[in-house]
Design a protein that fits this description.
The complex is a heterodimer of chains A (98) and B (478). Chain A has 98 residues and is mostly helical. The radius of gyration of chain A is 22 Å and the shape is flat. Chain A has a domain of 40 residues. Chain A contains 3 helices and 3 strands. In chain A, strands 2-3 form a two-stranded antiparallel sheet. Chain B is of the alpha+beta class and 478 residues long. Classes of the chains: A mainly alpha (98), B alpha+beta (478).
């Protein structure tokens, strides 16, 4: 699979990362070589006799009992945000103008 | 041309677990913002989610109640999207192997029964709450809701009218309430619906282009949104225009929907298996155990009420809408074995009290058993209708026993013939004008004298007895 500039810009857009045209070309090339390497390695592995799998790990889930273990370190958690206001994380407005 | 509406619903319901889905933070509405948060639900690097067993069980229970197959092998996936209410930049959800699939519910609308397919029910986590900041400079985020367990119930596009959409939403909410997996507090947004709707010329086999309206949180709003959107799409088609596939936001105040910003709808979720969680393998015995805990559901209850108790469908529907009301009906019926009487009193007086004093009235001493006793006394003619009403109100306030209130307020119907005819004689003696009116053929005067007598008996006379004693006395002393 080739990562073109177009796909790279689309992914950047969805992830809200600002990348300019020149950067996009460089990153596309780099990603191409990484994915190309993986693809080549994968193609070397014989997989004709492999059963399809749903998950990379073969173990199965364990569960947690429904018991409260509150973390109670609000100040510390909020402290890791770049901007806070009134005990909340504060972000640029996301209200849909209508 | 005649058009047909095709609707499918996606209903999100918060599960009433004590803690969040992947961490031990409290699952509680209305607390101070960001108090029930930890590195897991805030998506801090390195934090590892662990599935809450109760959330899994509740989801299975909802699935079984909606006749779904439960997947013995299921897994979680990452739904990637960049939005500030989701600190991880992905939501843990289920993509291609949902926990429950291929079920159905039966609904009843205008006397006919219809089966609506349930495509799937999957488990996922809720996002944080965005609060619009009055300054207009930005948005505040409260992450108490981040990681609250949700189930998403996806119906098949089997719904054909706005009324049907509302009934499906009501029925599903009712099932969630009966199975006790969700609080179903609509006003807190714990149950909300997305509406997928398209229209097509009647008789056409393929579906038209659909739109999606997100996060509608009342039954009425779902019905209105469906009606408005069907009208909008029909109008476009009639003018030879095309419906654009898009996500719209329903504004219930304005009664219309708006397209969401293109940026928000251009979602490409890039689902992939959640590497931090292992596949979920469910033991058959757990499914059987959960199945045995499912109570009689509203649709079956309704049928039983009409068949076993001979109640009209209207009554049965009203009585089964809420689990609490149906419990009160059934308990009261164990005491006062007159189904129609109990039903009437619930539909009028009890629901009136609920309207006036709030739902909390159902948690007072006025429980099903006491309510049944009051009705039993009334049915036997031991207390009057007015007294029965008084009893209900007093008991809800004070928590007293019915008999002690009856004694304290002298509410028992007075049938002692000597006593009643004594009162009747006094009334006749004190109201000569009415008496002569009656004798002159003015029957209205009898009503007046009855009223006087009942008042003298503090409303506790037996109307039949008072009436016959009055007539006897009037005819005798002529």
């Amino acid at each position: 699979m080739a990562v073109g500039k177009e796909l790279l810009l689309k992914i950047a857009d969805i992830a809200a990362i600002s990348i300019d045209e020149t950067e996009a070309e460089d990153y596309a090339k780099e990603l191409d070589s990484v994915i190309g390497y993986i693809e080549q390695k994968l193609s070397e592995i014989p997989d004709d006799d492999l059963e399809p799998m749903e998950h990379v790990l073969s173990a199965q889930s364990f569960f947690r009992a429904d018991e409260v273990t509150n973390f109670d370190r609000k100040a510390e958690l909020l402290g890791s945000a770049s901007v806070t206001k009134d005990g909340c994380h504060f972000v640029p407005s996301v209200v849909d103008p209508s | 041309m005649e058009y047909e509406i095709v609707i499918g619903l996606e209903i999100h319901a918060e599960l009433k677990t004590k803690t969040k889905i992947f961490c031990g933070c409290k699952n509680e509405f209305g607390e101070e913002p960001n108090t029930n948060c930890c590195p897991v639900c805030l998506g801090m690097p390195g934090a590892m989610p662990v599935l809450n067993q109760k959330a899994l069980e509740y989801a299975i229970k909802a699935g079984l109640a909606m006749n779904c197959d439960i997947a013995e092998f299921s897994k979680f996936d990452r739904k990637n999207y960049f939005y500030p209410d989701t600190p991880k930049a992905y939501q843990i959800s289920q993509y291609d192997l949902p926990l429950c699939h291929d079920g159905y519910i039966d609904i009843e609308l205008e006397g006919t029964t219809k089966r609506i397919g349930i495509e799937r029910i999957h488990l996922e986590e809720d996002a944080g709450k965005l609060i619009h900041d009055a300054s207009g400079e930005g948005s505040l985020i409260d992450h108490n809701r981040s990681g609250v367990p949700l189930i998403e119930i996806v119906t098949r596009p089997d719904i054909r009218s706005p009324e049907e959409a509302r009934t499906v939403f009501e029925s599903i909410k009712s099932i969630l309430e009966y199975t006790d997996v969700s609080d179903c507090r609509m006003q807190e947004g714990s149950v909300r619906a997305d509406v997928n709707l398209s229209v097509r010329p009647k008789g056409k086999g393929t579906f038209g282009v659909r739109t999606e309206m997100k996060n509608i949180n009342s039954f009425r709003a779902v019905e209105r949104a469906c009606r408005a959107e069907a009208e909008r799409q029909t109008e476009l088609l009639e003018r030879g225009l095309e419906v654009v596939r898009e996500t719209r936001r329903w504004d219930d105040l304005k009664g219309t929907s708006f397209p969401m910003r293109s940026k928000e709808e251009a979602m490409d979720y890039r689902f992939f298996p959640e590497p931090d969680l292992l596949p979920v393998v469910i033991d058959r015995s757990l499914i059987a155990e959960i199945k045995s805990s499912i109570p009689e559901l509203p649709f079956d209850k309704r049928r039983r009420y009409t068949e076993q108790y001979g109640l009209p469908l209207y009554d049965a529907k009203l009585l089964t809408e809420s689990k609490k009301i149906s419990e009160i009906f059934e308990t009261a019926l164990e005491v006062c074995k007159n189904p129609k009487l109990v039903s009437n009193w619930i539909m009028t007086d009890l629901l009136r009290l609920v309207n006036e004093k709030g739902k909390s009235i159902l948690d007072t001493a006025l429980n099903g058993r006491i309510f049944g006793r009051i009705l039993l006394y009334f049915d036997r003619g031991e207390i009057s209708q007015a007294s029965a009403r008084t009893l209900m109100e007093v008991i809800a306030e004070t928590g007293e026993e019915p008999d002690s209130v009856i004694d304290r307020l002298s509410l028992r119907v007075q049938r002692d013939e000597n006593l009643v005819s004594g009162v009747v004689k006094t009334i006749i003696r004190d109201n000569p004008q009415a008496v002569s009116d009656y004798r002159a053929g003015k029957t209205k005067a009898l009503g007046f004298l009855m009223g006087r007598t009942m008042a003298a008996l503090k409303g506790n006379g037996d109307p039949e007895q008072v009436r016959s004693l009055l007539i006897k006395e009037l005819d005798r002393t002529e």
